[in-house]
Amino acid sequence: MLTVLDAFPAKLLELEATELYQVLDGPTLIHLKGQQEPPLFISVLLHGNENTGWLAVQTVLRQYRDRSLPRSVSLLIGNVAAARDRKRHLDEQPDYNRIWSGGGSPEQQMAQQVIALMRSRGVFASIDIHNNTGFNPHYGCVTRLDRRFLYLAQLFAPIVVYFTSPKSVQASAFADLCPSVTLECGQPGQVAGTDHVMSYLETCLRLQNFGELSLDRLHIFHTVAIVKVPKDASFSFGSENTDICFDPHLDRLNFRELAIGTKFARTKSNPEPGDRLWLEAWDLEDRNVANRFFNFQNGEIRTKVPVMPSMLTLRTDIIRQDCLCYFMERFAYQEPV
């Protein structure tokens, strides 16, 4: 399933993400020789509708068309088939950022092959590039509270999210090999997002080591729950004719610290805990702890504790495929003495 190349097909420099299928048969790992080793690993298009990473990589590689890269690069171009259709993943496919913890499917075996190849080469750092579908700032995500990981994230933005679930993401798998970071670059198609990632990649290509943290400027948050809509509940943004009705501008709550009692949604009825209309909130131990975060009163869903949401989206397909949002809390990080 995985194609491995030791040279970059020149035609790719001119193709949009939706056109990559014309040259690539599927997931492709491309090793590019640079002035320094070990290589920087970059993954793009694990979600086919998130093209900022590809546009940024494409721009950087154009600049090095006739000269060597400052550091070797191993570039993984992920879900080419989904990119063709501008989808996160096709209906018959798994999520390509949920396949990295092992298993027997072709996609999971492909991910293990990538991990094995990069382990054999050694790897300097790993950068996985994504977009959001809702209104979010740019931020970096890490799966370990390690100074090197945080430094990679700090180079991108002062907001850093520390998460440990789901464990099947690329950043978690590569954390066993090297410092790794996931970049969240706003919505696809924004020039500012592409320019930001391009500048970041240029910086990382020239890194000699991992420098000092600016803790006074860092805002670190810890993901504590994943919020989902029950599969058998209908929902909408603004319509009164669904089981759950969210505000049409719900994604404006991203990265805002919500006070107790903040209105989150309305319901057609006043369900009891455990009812199918009760929003799910799954903690790090995969327990549904919705009653910790939500109150139901008079047909309204309100927050029960102070929380900060991230990745709230208005896209119903993304909510069904993944989640409504994540809940976070501020995290006080102190470097080991």
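the 2nd protein, sequnce then structure:
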Amino acid sequence: MSDIAPVLARVDENLSSSLEKLFALLRIKSISTDPAYAGECRQAAGFLADYLGELGFEASVRDTEGNPMVVAHHPGATAQAPHVLFYGHYDVQPVDPIELWTSDPFEPAIRKTENGTEIIFGRGASDDKGQLMTFVESLRSYKEIHGEMPVAVTILFEGEEESGSPSARPFIIANKQELTADYALVCDTGMWDPETPSICASLRGLVGEEVTVTGADRDVHSGDGSLVVNPVHVLCDILAGLHDESGAVTLPGFYEGVSETREDVRRIWDELSQMPANLLAEYGLSIPAGEKDRTSLELIWARPTAEVNGIAGGYAGAGFKTVIASKATAKVSFRLVGDQDPEKIRDSFRAYVRSKIPADCSVEFARHGGAPATQLPYDSPLLARAKAALSEEWPKPAVVTGGGGSIPIVGDFQSILGMDALMVGFGLDDDRAHSPNEKYNLISFHKGIRSWVRILATIADMPKSGA
């Protein structure tokens, strides 16, 4: 099975039918954060399980406390073949504000940009349905050409990644033996630029918190503003105190476990900073907002954050209503690096908030996920082989990067299953993954499938873990 030329040729022949499968999946409104779409999440899980079954997998939809998991198994070509666990997620972000979409977000289409680039348009095209289907379609081509897979494959697709993966950790613990493999593969990251593939060697961890401050037992006329405590004021003061003038986070103990970036890693990032990529410019900005005296790459890959993701209180409808809100709510997330402990960060945040609550107010908290940071060793043989395989497929050599975001389940692979994850993705910075008009370049989808063919071929020659 070392000759991958016919497999790559089959990928090219299958592109139209591969897009048909992807489009069918994209039409399913699998929005995990809204319970109204629970049925569509189950529909997406069933679609994937059925398709994997067609490819010869033993596939099933597994119930959880939330949206179901898809688990599938296929043996390798030989008993000596390594075993990989591939992860992706079928759930998607909400589409709000819907009025900013140029067409129906769940009616996918291929469009051409002004420069002639063909793009796949629709919610989930990049994050993560298009990405997970690159892996599935690579397996399809292997099966059609060779009748078997180059490695033993377990697939795990979840339906709650976009809402903090609350069911993932209990599921992994309960099914530890079934899910443990030699290597974990994840396709939920991106390219360095349209011609340069990348391997994400690190992800920041995550703590999500929702805090609600309550004052009076009802909204009050603002004429009583000099008398009645205003929960919006209280909450805004608390949130403003999360950072000092230098941009550093003020929570006690927040930087425990945060190390300075290694010099060899810094040199790699310095080289990357010379390449044509500017995230701020993509957002119409130019000035970094985080800690001073840090490079842009260091800020998003190696430094922790505290961010307010949403805030609500009082009247926010059309026109004007002069009230003092009874309640004010904020959603706050912390991105973690190094050895920061998610639960210690959560406890520190809650203690800080409670210390700022006036005697006449009360506060409630709701947790929204938590996971530590993850790191794939820079000297990993798996990383080196994958980097070489990607470099054969794309115009420019692959680079090794970090990730500013979080994939909570990757931390669980590390802490529960004892597996580091190879994170390879083909999204681009302008894919608008969590925004209106999400897209995925057609070449990202096509060459992504071909890339997994190459990566699987090189993994097939690797020893099993512990061998």
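The longest strand covers residues 205-214. The two ends are 21 Å apart (CA to CA).
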